[in-house]
């Protein structure tokens, strides 16, 4: 087994029957996912489970033992969203314990869509979408060689809805639907301890990735997705409903207070990004790839590999969708019918 990252924080007893267990994400700059274990009379309930990897499994199992339990004792896993660094180990925990897995119904539907559409399975959808974005053929070929496929996470036993209490014996854990980072992303309010598990919705330093992908729906289906618009609405909702002094327990980095201030800073970041993109459209019609190249990125567009560029393109597409909804941008292709070879956007007139 490879050694765990040196920066991995310790397992922590946070008090009130809540434990923090860092689970590494090998080879990923995020470093780790913070899995939270809630003590209950019927065994721990986990908030997220971590990445599917032997090192990750060992860290989760050791963390549970440090908290006085074992993977076989787990009563349930509630997943904040379906991404592999959160849901990847949920199926393995269920196999070890017979526990349930729960996630929001919109993410359960997303898993079904991913299986149907072939996202990430080498079927050709990925390269077709890159061509729609205007990526050069050498970039399309480079992406095809990366083989970024991942096994899909385990399907849930329970599909949650906004406001619903999760099956956590002796505790009050309420579902707060916060779409954006994924269609069914949820925060979880532990009402008996006044803590809020924020998943990837609000992080203390990182701005969560909000992307629109695929750029068009298969078969020319009507496309009304607006992940960034939903995310911005969710930011406002979570700060309106959570107590002002609530302790936020995110899935990455470290727990924090000042949720409203952090949410406002994230919203301001996206407002600035929307302004930059609107200014880029003033220069004339452009493909998604050209617009990405015109925008500033923390790593720089030229330094990005093609997988990172695909993620940047999906983020830019999400911002373009908001500009479209606000009447500031127009996509040259209709939203229904067969997609054109390359999508372009222009500034709206009038």
Outline the structure in words.
With 350 residues, this protein is an alpha/beta fold. It has a domain of 242 residues: Metallo-beta-lactamase, Chain A (4-Layer Sandwich). Helix content is 35%, strand content 17%. It contains 10 helices and 14 strands. The strands form 3 sheets. A 7-stranded mixed beta sheet has the order 1-2-3-4-5-6-7. Strands 8-9-10-11 form a 4-stranded mixed beta sheet, with no helix packed on it. A hairpin with a 6-residue loop joins strand 3 and strand 4. Helix 5 packs antiparallel against helix 6, helix 7 packs antiparallel against helix 8 and helix 9 crosses helix 10. It starts with 11 loop residues before the first strand and ends with a strand. It comes from Nocardiopsis suaedae. InterPro entries: Metallo-B-lactamas, RibonucZ/Hydroxyglut_hydro, Sec-metab_biosynth-thioest, WH-like_DNA-bd_sf. This is MBL fold metallo-hydrolase.
Overall average pLDDT: 91
Which percent range fits the helix content? 25-40%
Can you tell me the CATH architecture of the domain at 99-146 and 154-347?
4-Layer Sandwich
Q: Give the neighbour order of strands across the main sheet.
A: 1-2-3-4-5-6-7
Oligomer status = single chain
The CATH class of the domain at 99-146 and 154-347 is: Alpha Beta
Number of helices: 10
Tell me, briefly, the overall form. globular
**Structural class given helices, strands, pairing?**
alpha/beta
Q: Strand count, sense and closure of the main sheet?
A: 7 strands, mixed
How large is the radius of gyration? 21 Å
Unreliable spans are 1-6
- The topology string of helices and strands comes to EEEEHEHHEHHHEEEEHEHEHHEE
* Distance linking N and C termini: 62 Å
Instruction: Tell me the number of strands.
Output: 14
Percent of sequence in beta strands: 15-25%
Protein name: MBL fold metallo-hydrolase
Region (Disordered): 331-350
Organism: Nocardiopsis suaedae
Domain Metallo-beta-lactamase: 32-252
């Amino acid at each position: 087994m490879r050694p765990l990252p040196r920066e991995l924080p310790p397992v922590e007893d946070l008090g009130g029957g809540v434990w923090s267990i860092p689970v590494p994400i090998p080879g990923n700059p995020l470093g780790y996912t913070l899995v939270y274990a809630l003590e209950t009379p019927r065994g721990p309930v986990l908030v997220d489970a971590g990445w599917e990897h032997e090192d990750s499994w060992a860290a989760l199992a050791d963390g549970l033992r440090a908290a006085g339990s074992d993977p076989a004792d787990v009563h349930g896993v509630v997943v904040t969203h379906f991404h592999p660094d959160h849901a990847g180990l949920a199926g393995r925990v269920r196999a070890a314990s017979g526990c349930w897995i729960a996630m929001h119904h919109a993410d359960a539907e997303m898993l079904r869509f991913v299986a149907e559409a072939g996202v990430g399975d080498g079927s050709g959808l990925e390269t077709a979408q890159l061509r729609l974005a205007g990526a050069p053929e050498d970039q399309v070929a480079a992406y095809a060689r990366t083989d970024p496929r991942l096994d899909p996470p385990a399907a849930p036993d329970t599909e949650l809805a906004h406001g619903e209490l999760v099956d956590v014996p002796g505790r009050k854990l309420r579902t707060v639907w916060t779409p954006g980072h994924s269609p069914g992303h949820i925060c979880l309010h532990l009402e008996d301890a006044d803590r809020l598990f924020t998943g990837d919705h609000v992080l203390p330093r990182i701005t969560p990735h909000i992307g629109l992908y695929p750029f068009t729906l298969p078969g020319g289906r009507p496309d009304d997705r607006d992940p960034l618009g939903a995310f911005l609405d969710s930011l406002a909702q979570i700060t309106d409903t959570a107590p002002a002094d609530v302790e936020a327990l995110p899935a990455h980095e470290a727990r924090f207070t000042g949720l409203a201030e952090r949410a406002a800073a994230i919203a301001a970041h996206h407002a600035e990004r929307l302004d930059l993109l609107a200014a880029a459209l003033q220069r004339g019609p452009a493909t998604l790839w050209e617009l990405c190249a015109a925008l500033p990125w923390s790593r720089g567009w030229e330094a990005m590999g093609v997988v990172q560029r695909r993620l940047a393109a999906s983020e830019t597409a999400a911002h373009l969708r908001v500009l479209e909804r606000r009447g500031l941008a127009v996509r040259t292709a209709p939203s229904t019918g067969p997609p054109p070879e390359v999508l372009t956007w222009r500034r709206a007139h009038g």
